[in-house]
Amino acid sequence: MTSLTLNAIDLFYGAAQALRGVTIEAKPNRITAVLGRNGVGKSSTLRAITGINTISSGEIVFNDHVLRKAPPYKRARMGLGYVPQGREIFPLLTVRENLETGYAGLKGKDKSIPETIFTLFPVLKTMLGRRGGDLSGGQQQQLAIGRALVTRPKVLVLDEPTEGIQPSIIKDIGRALQFLRDDMGMTILLVEQYLDFCREIADDIYIMDRGEIQHSGPASDLDLPEVRRHLMV
Max CA-CA distance within the chain? Predict the structure, then answer.
């Protein structure tokens, strides 16, 4: 049972404080969503989790291990998968080569592309020889999720997976995340602005504003006026 917990973390960019005492628990085998407007600290939270940025105080606990200053590659080897905002696939590499970049932290016997990826996203199997940059935005997002799954993550964190994606593929991504939770026992943490998507798939929500958590509770809380006001522009 793998969990991810942030305990009162602070994060600074120079003199500017991006995160203030952020506490979040991504419980085992559940989908946890962090919601908020642009610029409130959602992406900074994921960058702290993955080790891209170093926190100044607090702690991040992954599967009972305090991560401290572990670099991103060590966190990936421990089982932390990351799907960045904007997808960040390699446009000149083929779909297969993009997926194979997930091999970097794996042992030799594990260096293969799980068939589950093609079950979740069949279009990728038909495009293995096509360059990543030739895919649509939605297909690139599927590829980015697939690349993270190649690393065999225990916890999957995603930064706005619905951004700029057509509705049909948003539904495919939602079904994929539910499958990973329900059938593969994966713990999932995502940051989002799309309320309907989170209402459909999330178990738990956190609302963030100005670098702080303003509310936490079940996804059904998204229907409460006092919660929704934190999300209004």
Answer: 52
